Design the sequence.
């Protein structure tokens, strides 16, 4: 089985994806600078996937993460990367200061295309939690402020996180699709 190209420049994401999927799928990371459109999570991931499939001329998997604050009707959503770069975790917390509702959803969207000119398939996972002051190492940007069942994602032991996270839930859906369709990579 040839490795599936996983478009990411984040080595920690590669480690986590490999930990979740184990030997089920062999991935080959590739950092590509693909501009992101503005839109919904599905539109952004699908567009990035289409562009990547054209660049590599073959099957590709892309991932996009989001953080949705219920009090802000889903913002920052897919733009969390830019909010985090500008405000940091403390600034993200301050965005919610005027609101009593601190609930949030971590969202992971994977898009897969079997090659150029093939419509991407989207697999999404969600994890409910709340926004809290930062705790734990900042390996994955906003994970120190996202708490699920009393622990931030940054505080969680890796094996525990990799069995319940938004990324895990999206990858399970992708793996189920692969096994049901018998798609050969």
Sequence:
């Amino acid at each position: 089985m040839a490795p599936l190209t996983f478009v990411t420049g984040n080595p920690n994401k590669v480690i986590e994806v490999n930990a979740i999927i184990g030997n089920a799928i062999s991935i080959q990371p590739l950092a590509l600078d693909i501009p992101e459109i503005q839109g919904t999570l599905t539109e952004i991931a699908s567009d990035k996937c289409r562009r990547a499939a054209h660049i590599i001329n073959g099957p590709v998997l892309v991932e996009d993460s989001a953080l949705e604050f219920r009090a802000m009707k889903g913002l920052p959503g897919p733009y969390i990367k830019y909010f985090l770069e500008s405000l940091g975790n403390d600034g993200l917390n301050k965005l919610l200061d005027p609101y009593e509702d601190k609930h949030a959803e971590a969202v992971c969207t994977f898009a897969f295309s079997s090659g150029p000119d093939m419509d991407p398939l989207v697999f999404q996972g969600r994890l409910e939690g709340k926004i809290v002051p930062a705790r734990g190492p900042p390996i994955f940007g906003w994970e120190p402020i996202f708490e699920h069942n009393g622990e931030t994602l940054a505080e969680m032991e890796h094996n525990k996180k990799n069995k319940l996270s938004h990324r895990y839930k999206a990858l399970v859906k992708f793996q189920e699709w692969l096994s049901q369709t018998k798609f050969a990579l």
Remarks:
- The two ends are 6 Å apart (CA to CA).
